[in-house]
Design goal:
Number of helices: 12
Low-confidence stretches: 1-11
Order of helices and strands: HHHHHHHHHHHEEEEEEH
CATH class of the largest domain: Mainly Alpha
Mean pLDDT: 93
Distance between the termini: 68 Å
Helix content: 25-40%
Length: 346
DNA sequence: AAGGCGTGGAA
DNA sequence: TTTCCAAGCCT
């Protein structure tokens, strides 16, 4: 309801959601998966879900192209559910966190098989789907279904930790963030509220050098002006990344390259790859024809490329034409090796 | 519940 | 160069 207030103007300082949404109506980023605020249009739950999964731990810039290609190739959840696993995994190549792609397919198929082809419209229903955790369930419920869910991502954690000066370290602070946020969620625009907070965290209340002078809720921010504002939210110390080493095999015959598929679980699970041994703490004795360094989340890897004449006798794999190697969907680690070999051949 | 799980851009 | 970290999920 829209009640006319008789309170003096500075009482608006209490209206967190009002100030935030006014700012969002003026400053919302135009994103491929987003419906403009105030347009009255309702976004397609399938597209909202697709975008949210891609955006997990991944930047907007990295996602945009993948989102366009996926939604063009598989316009509906039924199309995606009917897709070949290999096609989806190859299309995801380069985006990272490949369990998301496996769960994306599993979720699409669960929607078709168990939910009549339509997404559940409640947070709890969404939460039960593969690859949908607390954040994504809340985001889809709020954005696609207008449910007053409490959406908390890393941007929103930062905004709330600062605005309320919460110094509890993550992840324990999560409960406090939700508790602070819950009474602020406006019943009429929960999706815009969540997206406004994320835009605020992404563009104004940034990890370093926040632009507090442009903040719509800065007037009552408890961290504003503090020299240590960048310390919030408090995070646990990171562990050092170990160095690991491995070998990859370049097996070429008749202008084709021998590719294998990695096991479903573990690093780069389910992705096409160059064959090779386990990755270990010690460098290989063998010297190779190329070498790449690649940083993963929890270790750094140096991979040595060694030429081989033929696959192991019992090996499973496929001879992939060198001319169309880009379409094989190799993860970045192996793409780096392919690029090096192309440089060699000039 | 703490660690496994990618990548590329920014500072 | 190194470090940080982005619309997290799963086990």
């Amino acid at each position: 309801m829209s009640v006319q207030t008789s309170e003096p103007p500075d009482a608006a300082c209490g209206d967190f959601a009002g100030r935030l949404l006014d700012w969002y109506d003026r400053s919302a980023r135009a994103l491929p998966w987003r419906v403009p605020p105030g347009s009255g249009r309702v976004p397609d739950p399938y597209r909202v879900w697709m975008a949210e999964v891609m955006l997990q731990q991944t930047t907007v810039a990295a996602v945009a192209g993948y989102y366009e290609r996926f939604t063009a190739r598989w316009p509906t959840v039924a199309d995606l559910a009917a897709a070949d696993d290999a096609d989806v995994m190859a299309a995801w190549a380069g985006l990272g966190y490949y369990a998301r792609a496996r769960n994306l397919l599993a979720c699409a198929r669960a929607i078709v098989r168990d939910h009549g082809g339509g997404f559940p419209d409640s947070e709890a229903g969404l939460r039960s789907l593969p690859g949908v955790g607390d954040y994504t369930a809340a985001a889809v419920a709020a954005i696609a279904f207008g449910r007053p869910a409490v959406v908390v991502d890393a941007n929103i954690e930062r905004v709330i930790a600062r605005h309320r000066l919460i110094e509890t370290p993550l992840p324990a602070a999560k409960r406090a963030f939700k508790a602070e946020l819950a009474p602020l969620v406006p019943a009429d625009r929960p999706g815009d509220f969540a997206q406004a907070l994320m835009d605020l965290g992404a563009g104004v209340c940034t990890p370093r050098a926040p632009a507090c002078d442009r903040c719509p809720v800065g007037a009552d921010c408890r961290a504003r002006g503090r020299a240590d504002i960048e310390r919030l939210p408090v995070k646990p110390a990171k562990k050092a990344k170990p160095q690991r080493y491995g070998i990859a095999h370049w097996i070429e015959r008749d202008d084709r390259l021998w590719l294998v598929r990695r096991p479903e679980k573990g690093m780069l699970g389910g992705m096409r790859a160059l064959p090779g041994g386990e990755w270990a703490a010690m460098p290989p004795a063998e010297s190779g024809i190329a070498e790449v360094d690649h940083g993963f989340t929890h270790f750094d890897l140096r991979l040595t490329l060694v030429r081989r004449e033929a696959p192991l006798a019992a090996a499973e794999g496929e001879w992939w034409p060198l001319a169309t190697l880009d379409a094989a969907g190799l993860p970045t680690l192996y793409r780096k090796l392919v690029d090096k070999m192309r440089e060699r051949k000039g």
